[in-house]
Each structure stands twice: as C-alpha cells, then as structure tokens.
Amino acid sequence: xxxxxxxxxxxxxxxxxxxxxxxxxxxxxxxxxxxxxxxxxxxxxxxxxxxxxxxxxxxxxxxxxxxxxxxxxxxxxxxxxxxxxxxxxxxxxxxxxxxxxxxxxxxxxxxxxxxxxxxxxxxxxxxxxxxxxxxxxxxxxxxxxxxxxxxxxxxxxxxxxxxxxxxxxxxxxxxxxxx
Amino acid sequence: xxxxxxxxxxxxxxxxxxxxxxxxxxxxxxxxxxxxxxxxxxxxxxxxxxxxxxxxxxxxxxxxxxxxxxxxxxxxxxxxxxxxxxxxxxxxxxxxxxxxxxxxxxxxxxxxxxxxxxxxxxxxxxxxxxxxxxxxxxxxxxxxxxxxxxxxxxxxxxxxxxxxxxxxxxxxxxxxxxxxxxxxxxxxxxxxxxxxxxxxxx
Lengths: 179, 202
Hints:
The complex is a heterodimer of chains A (about 180) and B (about 200). Helix content of chain A is about 80%, strand content about 0%. Chain A is built from eight helices and no strands. Chain A has helices at about 1-20, 25-35, 45-55, 60-95, 100-105, 105-135, 140-155, 160-175. In chain A, helix 1 crosses helix 4 (about 60-95) and helix 3 packs across helix 4 (about 60-95). The longest helix of chain A is centred in the middle third of the chain and has 37 residues, at about 60-95. With about 200 residues, chain B is mainly α. Chain B folds into three domains: about 1-100, no CATH class; about 110-160, no CATH class; about 160-200. In chain B, helix 1 (about 1-15) packs across helix 4 (about 55-100). Chain B is globular and about 55 Å long. Chains A and B meet through helix 1, helix 2, helix 3, helix 4 and helix 5 of A and helix 3, helix 4, helix 5, helix 7 and helix 8 of B.
C-alpha cells in the first residue's frame, strides 16, 4: 500500500515535471505511464477517468491525479498523487519569477517550445486514437464525439455546456441499450 | 487579508473552470483585470510563462499571480484555492459513485460524455498544431459568419518546416519505437531548437 503511494507520488511528480503545455499533454503521458507501461488501468478504466475529469471543474492535471490516485490506492493515493502533481509547478513558478525577463526575451526558448508543441500534438493524437478505438462501438458514439468537436472548434461553445449536452445526448440516444 | 482574498477568488475561478487549461484563461483574465490585480499586458506575460513551465497551465497561472501579489505564501494560497473545488467534488463523486453507478440514466450519460471527451481532446491536438507546425491559427470558429475573410486569411498560412520535421520524427518514434514520451520530448528539443534557429537565419 505504502509502496504504491510512493510510486504514485514519484510517477505524478515526474509527469508534472516533464510535461510542458498543461492538461491534454498530461493525459497523453498518464495514458502511456499507467495503461501502456505499467498496466495498472484498463482501457475502460482510463476512458471512465477521462470522462469524469472533463465533467469536473479545475485543472485537468490535478483532477486526473486525484482520480487515478483514488482509483489505485484510495484516499492516501489521491493525496500522494496530488502532492506529486502540484510540487514541481509551484516550486518552479515561485523560483522562476526572478528570471522572467531572461526567459521571455531569448528566441531560443521560443524555438524549444515550438519543438515541444510539435512533438506533443503527436502524443495527444495517439491518446485520442486509442480513446476512439475503445469508446466508438456504434454510430451514436461517433455522432456525439463529432458534435463535441464541432461545437468547441467551430462555434466556440464553452466546454462545460458541451460536456453537459453530451451527457444528455447519451441519456437520449442510448436509452434502449443494455450497457 | 490579501491571502484570504486570493484563496477565495481562485477557488471561485476554479469552480467555474470546466474543460481545462486554455478554455479557462478568459475567466481568469476577466476576474484578475476587474480587480486590478494585473494589467492585460502582465496577464499575457503570465500566460506565456505558465505555458512554458511544466505542470498544468492554470496552476502555474494561479501560483504566478499569487506570488506577484503577495509573495511566496500568496502563491501557495492561490494554488490551494484553485484545487479546493476539484478536491471537494472528487470526494463527493467517490462517495456517491458506488450508489449511482448502477442507475441506467447515469451510465448512459457517462457513456455520452466518454464519447464527447474524445472530440474535446481532438480540439487540443488542433491547438498544439496551430501553435507549432502552422504559422498562425486557423480561426475555425470564424468560419461560420466570416467565411470569405477566413478563406483569404488561410492563404497567408504556411507550414513551419523545422516544426514539421520534429512532428514527422515523433510520428516515427511513436509508430516504430517504444521510447517513453520524456525521451521523445528531450530529443525533439535537442534537434528542433538549433534547426529552427538555423532556419530563422536563412
């Protein structure tokens, strides 16, 4: 139990420390760490966790740490994971405010971050691909995903309404199905 | 007293911050500007730094604003405020989920959200592509009422060569090797940065 908590703390510390770009990037890294490499979570566990994270307010990184930690090791796990995810960014920001001008003015940091974003788009695309493979079981799933994508990308509807409407669509479309 | 204000304001922001990261920056912006806690230029700087540093972007923003307003304790208090709603809601979900998971209505709703989230995460892919491989954002949201202008705007969009090389390299890593994401990111920075610098000198 305690070894699992220590592992969770270290894993989330590492994830938080190495992922520049925020929530979606962390989802891709967590997917690789907990599902692909360590096989602690199944595909359907992971997709349920993603659904819960997106229906909750707050930072995606923190919400996923809380949920994955709780799923794997209960209350202690949630606390350890959250501490792991919070310590690197808070420490770095508190430290970095002194050097802000230096970082901002150097074109090299800009190039480095363009490289990171190019790399990261591939990882997130892989995560999406896997999510689609596992959640799309009939045309209704595809319709809901397409709706969510179009609503956010083309019409700029805030994510909270999109998530709520996807839930309502789900209740309406799947009502005759056995799950 | 400033600590209590920081805590409450960031807890309030977090409570309305759905969909993660970039979707929430406008809420944070209006809340901070209306209180005179920072100017629009300062906010742009804060967001730039928050995106460059590791960790969730909104957590970085909260820590940064807290630190500039009230020193190190301020940064910590603002961050704690931001995570409070998530902690409370997670505890509530975990306590209730066993009882509700069997209700068909809830299960159908969750299945709908699961499918929808795939679409939402796809939007994040476009965001990262727009900010790396493409020279400017696509403004897809303007497509509906501003069709002509957007299409003309699209002519000025070109692909950024070095970023495209990094992208293709990572597709190769993901498809053909089993490198961890950390190693891929480090290799991308080592190869991409000098490449882009050389490209900018041409």
